[in-house]
Write a structure and sequence with these properties.
This protein is mostly helical and 232 residues long. It has 13 helices and two strands, in the order ααααααααββααααα. The chain folds into two domains: 13-170, Four Helix Bundle (Hemerythrin (Met), subunit A) (Up-down Bundle), CATH 1.20.120; 172-232. A two-stranded antiparallel sheet has the order 1-2. β1 and β2 (144-146) form a beta hairpin. α2 (18-44) runs antiparallel to α10, α11 (178-188) runs antiparallel to α12 and α12 (196-212) packs antiparallel against α13. It is globular, with a radius of gyration of 19 Å.
Length: 232
């Protein structure tokens, strides 16, 4: 078998153009939808562990656009390196999997979702461990061997697929097109990693300008973003 060229397999670590970032976001969202459809197919055919694993992969892919936007905001080589490390690290992409639970518990504003990004929380590592259990045999405790079908049952697989359905967008979403990303960097880069209130107001200004010139995609509006940020 002919070996692929090493150059094609080397991870990209340089700076992205706005067009490259938009394409990366588009591909991530498309792949997330494809993985979710595969998970639903596995669920329909009672392949519970595989359905669970594919749903988790869909969740991870749906987490890539945010990291790619951060890559484009990087102000130094070290920041850029750190963002690419996040992009290729599973737990950095699945932090939002507890979002449906937070929302069902009443969370509606950004401040109420802080636990998603709490570095001391283990929820991202928990989902990654579940993915391993859904794919591999393993050995635990006092030499207890585990198989995916022993670890993942129907109800659990259905719950993870349901989470993926919430997180994976069916259509266009905000801050994914070239026009939107140009506004994103215009407004967010000057305040990136600065005071939270400054970042909130910059994000709202970004949505307001995108909406005013007719390039804002998806269902969110500047009004809904204002409510989410608590800036009403």
């Amino acid at each position: 078998m002919r070996k692929p060229k090493k150059r094609l397999l080397s991870p990209f670590k340089d700076r992205l153009t706005v067009a490259q970032a938009a394409q990366g976001i588009e591909f991530a969202l498309k792949n997330a939808r494809d993985l979710l459809r595969d998970a639903e197919f596995m669920l329909m055919n009672e392949r519970w562990p595989r359905a669970c694993a594919l749903a988790i992969l869909a969740i991870e892919e749906s987490g890539k656009p945010g990291i790619l936007r951060h890559c484009w905001l990087a102000r130094s080589d070290q920041e850029l390196h750190d963002e690419w490390m996040e992009y290729r690290h599973h737990t950095a992409k699945n932090v939002s999997w507890i979002l449906p639970d937070l929302v069902s518990g009443g969370a509606r504003q950004l401040e109420e979702l802080r636990s998603l990004f709490d570095k001391s929380s283990d929820h991202a590592h928990l989902l990654d461990s579940i993915k391993q259990l859904a794919l591999y045999s393993d050995c635990f405790g006092d030499c207890h061997w585990s198989l995916p079908y022993e670890a993942i049952d129907q109800s659990f697989a259905e719950s993870i697929v349901s989470v993926a359905k919430v997180l994976v967008s069916n259509g266009p979403t905000a801050m994914t097109s070239v026009a939107e990303l140009e506004l994103w960097v215009k407004h967010i880069r000057p305040v990136w990693k600065g005071p939270m209130e400054d970042m909130k107001r910059a994000l709202l200004a970004c949505y307001q300008e995108a909406e005013s010139i007719g390039v804002l995609r998806g269902d969110n509006t500047s009004s809904s973003m204002s409510a989410f940020l608590g800036l009403e």
